[in-house]
């Protein structure tokens, strides 16, 4: 898969092939992003004791805030609420039936996108007008000052990064809590891994890259969650030339949707596919097989892969070493067209 196809984005994300720079490399996550995620996660989880939490809501806020803080740290508090409301419309629209009539989610999605673009354009204008002595240390500032991209490209870049890391990370975080609750043996093994890390560190010492890399079982839990929940339904490609695949002709220009859900539940690839079995991923080779498309494949492989896994792993670290929890309702998780719990996934949280 992949060779004669370009990656395709949807109509809400306008970037063409090869536009996204491969910036979310391990060193970026290690040196700049992981310390921020660690700091954010402690704060995020600091006061859950005794509370009833809607994990879906909290994961959504967490994933969006983590992405948004990296991008526009300076104006975060002043525009957050309005921006997120419009962004949510856009995300829902992009996952809905493409009927562009007033009143449909699809229509609202385009309106949401227009407002998001407007807000970002105003921010860029303000940043350009600010004196060079005013320094900000966020992604927007680097993109604007770097000068390699025009304003429209900067805006598209930001929307793409925010969009890609939002729904994926938040859904994975919610589903990982559900699967761990339902599989106590996995939870105990995961907890032991994280207490092992805490025992090696001073009280309150943040997680570092070596800690993250040592989270073998946690990585397996995240990969199994992505498989079983099918957080991403599939991948889009466009045939750049005629291609014959298993005797079928795919003409040049056709769009292909690789439906990964089928692959995720293939009993030959994953014995007992409906069982949550993170131990299967301890065979390191499984992650590098060419049918393992959790993060896509080829030239369009997700550039936020390590960032996404590191975010969910950091969340799990502080969550399982601080709290235990019981589910108190909301177990009607819908898997299609997106994984969600229409009534929220509520848990009661208590300090360990
Ligand atoms: C659990 C978390 C995540 C999952 C499961 C996930 C999954 C995916 C998948 C399946 C693709 C399509 C790849 C392809 O077409 O071959 C993708 C693309 C992408 N992801 Fe992620 N992702 C995650 C987190 C993130 C994060 C945190 C970011 C933000 C930096 C991000 C940024 C992107 C971008 C920009 C693309 C488009 C790449 C391109 O078309 O060249 N992702 N992701």
From TrEMBL:
<dbReference type="Pfam" id="PF00067">
    <property type="entry name" value="p450"/>
</dbReference>
<keyword id="KW-0479">Metal-binding</keyword>
<keyword id="KW-0503">Monooxygenase</keyword>
<keyword id="KW-0812">Transmembrane</keyword>
<dbReference type="GO" id="GO:0016132">
    <property type="term" value="P:brassinosteroid biosynthetic process"/>
</dbReference>
<dbReference type="GO" id="GO:0016712">
    <property type="term" value="F:oxidoreductase activity, acting on paired donors, with incorporation or reduction of molecular oxygen, reduced flavin or flavoprotein as one donor, and incorporation of one atom of oxygen"/>
</dbReference>
<dbReference type="GO" id="GO:0005506">
    <property type="term" value="F:iron ion binding"/>
</dbReference>
<keyword id="KW-0408">Iron</keyword>
<keyword id="KW-0349">Heme</keyword>
<dbReference type="InterPro" id="IPR036396">
    <property type="entry name" value="Cyt_P450_sf"/>
</dbReference>
<dbReference type="GO" id="GO:0020037">
    <property type="term" value="F:heme binding"/>
</dbReference>
<dbReference type="InterPro" id="IPR001128">
    <property type="entry name" value="Cyt_P450"/>
</dbReference>
<comment type="similarity">
    <text>Belongs to the cytochrome P450 family.</text>
</comment>
<dbReference type="GO" id="GO:0016114">
    <property type="term" value="P:terpenoid biosynthetic process"/>
</dbReference>
<keyword id="KW-1133">Transmembrane helix</keyword>
<dbReference type="GO" id="GO:0016020">
    <property type="term" value="C:membrane"/>
</dbReference>
<dbReference type="InterPro" id="IPR017972">
    <property type="entry name" value="Cyt_P450_CS"/>
</dbReference>
<protein>
    <recommendedName>
        <fullName>Brassinosteroid-6-oxidase 1</fullName>
    </recommendedName>
</protein>
<dbReference type="InterPro" id="IPR002401">
    <property type="entry name" value="Cyt_P450_E_grp-I"/>
</dbReference>
<dbReference type="GO" id="GO:0016125">
    <property type="term" value="P:sterol metabolic process"/>
</dbReference>
<keyword id="KW-0472">Membrane</keyword>
<feature type="binding site" description="axial binding residue">
    <location>
        <position position="302"/>
    </location>
    <ligand>
        <name>heme</name>
    </ligand>
</feature>
<keyword id="KW-0560">Oxidoreductase</keyword>
<dbReference type="GO" id="GO:0010268">
    <property type="term" value="P:brassinosteroid homeostasis"/>
</dbReference>
